[in-house]
Design a protein that fits this description.
Elements (H helix, E strand, L loop, with lengths): L1 H9 L2 H5 L2 H12 L25 E4 L2 E7 L9 E7 L4 E7 L4 E8 L2 E5 L2 E5 L4 E4 L5 E4 L6 E8 L4 H12 L6 H10 L3 E2 L11
Antiparallel strand pairs: 1-2, 2-3, 3-10, 4-9, 4-11, 5-8, 5-10, 6-7, 6-9
Helix pairs in contact: 4-5
């Protein structure tokens, strides 16, 4: 009688939880949880193939920029951008980066690269690696179109820089303070702030 009253008072729940069959099932469920695999790689297909006519493009002061590998795609580890420079166009005047390395790969035409205090002609197939804190700039001194791949690592969300550049350089007149603010936000620092706008004088 006392046992029945006790069960009636507390209910069947706590008693069922202590039943050996229930405890066994709980142990089995715990043991079936997937354990981390410390000895084998989990393979996934996260690759991207970007074809020649693919990528968002912007026209900036006569130069075109096409986003190939974006910060979002690479988790901000790498940025790859195709730059097309028309004849006599300036890509960028002398500047440097604090947190990014930059690589140029020329695919068409002859690019003039400024590195430090020297200017060099870079023909198709040329690869130029510019580590951070190295002053550099680039332009097209020829009458032919130049195409070059710019690779930034890490990318530091470089797309924002190009979009801001599109807005800034399409304004008349160009606002030097706005231009410098954009440069600094995206880890670019002109060597000469009095001569930093990429237009021929």
């Amino acid at each position: 009688m006392i046992r029945k009253e006790f069960i009636k008072w507390i209910g069947w729940g706590p008693i069922l939880l202590m039943h050996p069959k229930f405890l066994l099932s709980q142990k089995t469920t715990y043991n079936m949880k997937k354990e981390p695999n410390y000895f084998e790689d989990e393979l996934v297909d996260n690759g991207s193939i970007i074809y020649p006519d693919e990528g968002e493009s912007l026209s900036i002061n006569g130069m075109s920029v096409t986003f190939k590998v974006t910060s979002e795609l690479s988790n901000n580890q790498l940025g790859v951008y195709e730059i097309t420079l028309p004849p006599k166009a300036i890509g960028a005047k002398l500047h440097y980066h604090r947190f990014m390395d930059e690589t140029f790969i020329v695919s068409q035409g002859t690019l003039t690269l400024e590195v430090g205090d020297r200017a060099q002609e870079a023909k198709p197939g040329t690869v130029a690696y510019i580590p951070r804190f190295t002053p550099h700039g680039f332009r097209n001194d020829t009458d032919e179109t130049v195409k070059v791949l710019l690779i930034f690592n890490p990318s530091e969300k470089r797309e924002g820089f190009f979009i801001g550049l599109y807005e800034t350089l399409n304004e008349v007149p160009i606002n030097p303070k706005k231009y410098l603010k954009l440069y600094n936000k995206y880890d670019s620092f002109p060597v000469d702030t009095s001569n930093m706008i990429p237009v021929r004088e």
